Amino acid sequence: MNKELLLSNLRNIPDFPIPGIQFKDVSTLFKNPLCIKEMTEEMVRLYKDAGITKVVGIESRGFVMGAILAERLGAGFVMCRKPGKLPADTKRKEYGKEYGKDVIEIHTDALEPDDVVLIQDDLLATGGSAKAAIDLVKAFNVKKVYCNFIIELRCEGLKGREFIGDSAEISTLLTID
Fold first, then answer.
1. What is the spatial distance between Cα 57 and Cα 166, in angstroms, rounded to a whole number?
2. Which of 38, 42, 59, 61 is catalytic?
3. Residue of 72, 92, 98, 161 with catalytic role
4. Closest by alpha carbon to 142, among 45, 64, 49, 50?
5. Is 98 a catalytic residue?
6. Do 55 and 117 meet the contact criterion of CB atoms below 8 Å apart?
């Protein structure tokens, strides 16, 4: 995988959404077809033999690569969304993040116990949203849970991987210290 290509196309936005946060904007990766190809090929390589039956994308940037991966892996795609965005009955989980609290939801009929699930999102920082998604997915008693992130931030005391612990097998494409 061409990490230099991805890093050179990643945009940093200081003080967003609040002062002190250095936001890593992956939209610049998504607008470059070469970056999408690099990320897709690497993620497919990582998970092609894992028996993935469902890919769960965390709102909203997890939808982009999550849907692409689901198609390439021959799996279904499930959306994990903010409250009030899913039309049917949902399970919900509140979590903390760097700058406050949030909630995510998933449809109650989204997963089955025989599913092998890959959760996909853009960024692992504190691990709050990922751990909430893992908890939601595990509430369905699925066989196995994997998590993939485009970027893992390890700078500024961020310890998302440690927060998630062994609740899911984690992989990342880029690590930023």
1. 20
2. 61
3. 98
4. 50
5. yes
6. yes
The pLDDT value recorded for residue 99 is: 67
Residue 144: phi, psi to the nearest 5?
-155, 150
Burial class (CB within 10 angstroms; exposed 0-12, middle 13-18, buried 19+) of 67: middle
Place of tokens 């003080």: 15
The pLDDT tens digits for 118-171 are 999 999 988 999 999 999 999 999 999 999 999 999 886 789 999 999 999 999
Report whether 165 contacts 137 (CB < 8 A): no
3-state secondary structure of 95: strand
Q: Is 152 a catalytic residue?
A: no
pLDDT tens across 26-46, in order? 999 999 999 999 999 999 999
In angstroms, the Cα distances linking 72 to 42, 84, 114 are: 12, 29, 20
**Buried b / exposed e along 96-132 (16+ C-beta atoms within 10 A):** eeeeeebebbbbeebbeeebbbbbbbbbbbbbbbbbb
105 confidence band (pLDDT: 50, 70, 90): very high
Each residue's pLDDT tens digit, 85-94: 999 999 999 9
